[in-house]
Amino acid sequence: MPYSVVGKSVKRVDAVAKVTGKAKYTDDFFERDMLVGKILRSPYAHAIIKSIDVSKARALPGVEAVLTHLTVPKVKFPTAGHPYSLDPSHRDKADRLILTDKARFVGDSVAAVVAVDELVAEKALKLIEIEYEVLEALTTPEAAMREGAPLIHEDCEQNILASRGYSFGDLEAAFSESDFVFEGEYETSPVQHCHLENQVSYAYLDGEGRLVIVTSTQIPHIVRRIVGQALDIPWGGVRVIKPYVGGGFGNKQDVTIEPLNAAMTLAVGGRPVKLELSREEAMIDTRTRHAFKFRIKTGLTKDGKINGIYIAAVSNTGAYASHGHSIASSGGGKFRYLYPAQAMKYEPVTVYTNLPVAGAMRGYGTPQIFFAYESHLDEIAHKLDMDPIELRQKNFVQVGHVDLLSKNRILSCGIRECVAKGKELIRWDEKRELYKNQSGDKRRGVGMACFSYASGTHPVSIEVAGARIVMNQDGSVQLQVGATEIGQGSDTVFAQMVAEVLGLPVEMVHVISTQDTDITPFDTGSYASRQTYITGMAVKKAAEEVKAKLLDFVWGMTDIPAETLDLRERNIVFKHNGEVVMPLEQAAMQTYYDTVFGRPLTSDTSNNARVNAIPFGVTFAEVEVDIKTGKIEVLEIYNVHDSGRIVNPQLAQGQVHGGVSMGIGYALSEQLLFDEKTGKTLNNNLLDYKLPTIMDTPDIGVGFVETEDPTGAFGVKALGEPPVISPAPALRNAVFAATGVALNRLPMNPQRVFEKFKQAGLI
Amino acid sequence: MYDIQGYIEAESVSDAVALLASNPRLKIIAGGTDVLIKLRHGQMEGAELLSIRKIKELERIEQLADGTIVIGALATFAQIFHEPIIHNNIPALAEAAVSMGGPQIRNVATIGGNICNGATSADSASTLFALDARLRLRSSAGERVVPVQEFYLGPGKVDLKPDEMLSEFLISPAGFRGFGGHYIKFAMRKAMDIATLGVSVMCKISGDVFREVKIGLGVAGPTPLRCVEAEEFAKGKAIYAETLAGIGRLAVKSTNARTSWRASREYREHLVEELTQRALHVAIVRAGGAEIG
Ligand SMILES: Cc1cc2nc3c(=O)[nH]c(=O)nc-3n(C[C@H](O)[C@H](O)[C@H](O)COP(=O)(O)OP(=O)(O)OC[C@H]3O[C@@H](n4cnc5c(N)ncnc54)[C@H](O)[C@@H]3O)c2cc1C
Question: Which residue of chain B has the CA closest to A691?
Fold first, then answer.
């Protein structure tokens, strides 16, 4: 079906506001007499607080309050931005306090100050005296799981948070029927989101005594719930407002500073208090990406058909659970769609350590598992002397496949076309041949890697999304959604969807970008690449409801049956020939002021999605390796995606550019480093943490294979997270092709590459 | 929010040195790209700052009649990069200048601040070492001129008395005339990064032998340094791959690299050996020599 607005690169609805500085972010708002909150952080990775003396800090002029674990509610709460579950066994681990009585990582919040300004607050922090009983710092999963290791949380034996996995088919039989069984070990490192805007919020009590929190979050409704839980107050007594947000990448799908900020305002009688993390703080005390270690076994026939897969994984979640084991589970779950084998066993363990807390980050466990598995497949292809593409093609999923465990059905799958397109873009065959026998100091290679993902979380969590539309007198509309725009462009694609259904130009759809839990329809937030797919369904339904009401109204005005009418270019038209019945504005005006039937048209829709469309894609990359220095230069890189129908090609490309650049950093340079003895983070700043700059980012080629998934509004599938999944293994495979050296640990930074090349005798 | 107690602006060098003499707590701020970082990190509580940004005479870059190049302490890296005098005579310094930070930083960061900050990683330092640059230091009592090699006392420590300021760098023609030079900044990123190693070489050749080679390194020890042994070895040697390899190996001898979480000693030394040779390859061509295969 040809669409008029869907599929077009219309301008972002917030473009002008953002480039002119009119878009307001949390820090742009001021309250009169706003106080400043600051956090005192533990210098020890693992220590019990024996005593705290705040008297000197409290006495400092300008200090309004000092908070410790003794003065704030002692209710353990979960922080992960997951929907609440009525089933207690399905809830996130509640292991966090607003201020802790036991430090579990260097940087853990042990006390806080509210003062008239930052300098006073910082001085006061230095005056707080704490006596610690220092415990052994467990900085690796091995140390933490060791027999007799001290427990980081009393209720988790061996510091294991969870170890639920899955298994189906007869793996032993699958291996014994195989001609080959290959094994491999792979490792990824913790990285950080590095969104432009650090965590920032301010909180106060309003005239009615209700708690108001303005915060940079992906999940306002979940913040409301968790603040309610943490402070043990009714959820309805909390109002959360989310203005424009400067990026999140999953880090703001977690509740980090808001409960403490709330406690701060309560400590000063409801006066407004602002809490803003510095970059150094945000890099240790928000969330990171879980580091994983994998052990993999794959059994195949000699012509490359995968019979069975075994994956053991150790996931390091740091000092608190946050999203915890969901990351390992989700990675293992989304991986299953790409190469369905007759038998599979996945054994993940998520372990607490005394390191900064790992949580949600774009890709949610999949960048790790696909790095491991796609690297593994390349080694297999090498051993079988088979083209890596051919090996994958033999094992790709088919349309119609139903996943045994999730019961999600593959209704659309463009992975083969994606690979064909990518292969052509990079000129695979030609370059594989050209780079076959190299010996110089600079060597080139091409590599590729694939992925599968999901659109939202069904059937793991509920997928409720809300949309509200009000039509104005001139036929323009306001759209409110509960899903948050955090830079990804969701507001714009929603506007396009509404415009499409109502026959409006996009400029006549005004999206209210601010979410306010008192006003905005309920939606669990921005995560899991769910907005366009899940919230899109609610938006489309709301628009269709308004359309139906409008055509019904026109039927009443004209006696022309609604089913013969349609909306096109701001007119009510006959469906069969497009002839204009009346201008939209005339009908809309009538809905307001008709003396008998006047009643403005609105829709308030909530949608609970119980479907999940599986997106696919591939990265192709060409590298040049400087053998002597260990530096890897990305010469070309292409990401080709099957994300169903693309609603806005330009925005979609932007999404891919960002994801690929994040993937390149993950592959080549980014890594949070910790002192192994003390657990202290060594590089929590953007000088020492090697986030690539634009100069390090090559031109990124983007391709789409537009399938049409019947479950998504207008045929869409997810695109938010997928671009970050496959660049790292594709780059690793390109280096493997160039040098024959298997770099099975991320990142492939020069120091590490140098060591590997030395071992391999290349240097 | 910065903990700044006072801020004054000097109108001229004599004004500045008089103010320094009257208040030993005064700390000079030029571009502020190091000073403000320190303030932010709480390393300068209650700072009293003396800004020298208004002193226009310190911005100039010129070449004197005798060929000496004078670079004012307040010359920014953007200015140095765009200056024909630098490009035509000491392109290695232009390379160092443009390797610094990003465009915004290069527009404010000064070469004087880069050196007075005392970091071994200062991108201009290794080239100034290789050029045998000298520093003119002024105080209310007068002035003195010191070679850059002697100015560095230790990590973050330079030979600057509390009442002194740097007014300009002097680079004599003996330091650059007839030399070809090249600077390599080896860092993890192509912009906005601190060097893992900075290598600046100058070489003078006649026919197919080296007449003189000068090698300045940054981040190869607690301060920038020169590779004296390698330089001695190179004198009069034929220009071919083995000589370069020997220079590379000997350059390592002058270094004092440490293993840290940023890079291992072994890797740093390997880089010194490799990158010294790579820099020489370019410098030789710039000195009029042929490319070495
Ligand atoms: C984002 C960023 C990126 C950076 N990237 C790089 C890089 O790539 N390479 C690099 O080498 N550096 C880099 N730096 C560090 C810094 O920019 C440089 O060292 C710069 O040259 C300092 O110059 P300034 O004018 O800003 O010095 P200031 O900060 O003003 O001063 C630095 C020090 O020198 C003293 N000082 C300054 N001028 C004089 C003078 N005339 N006489 C006596 N003392 C003086 C000051 O008192 C202070 O101790 C970077 C800094 C930032 C913030």
Answer: B189
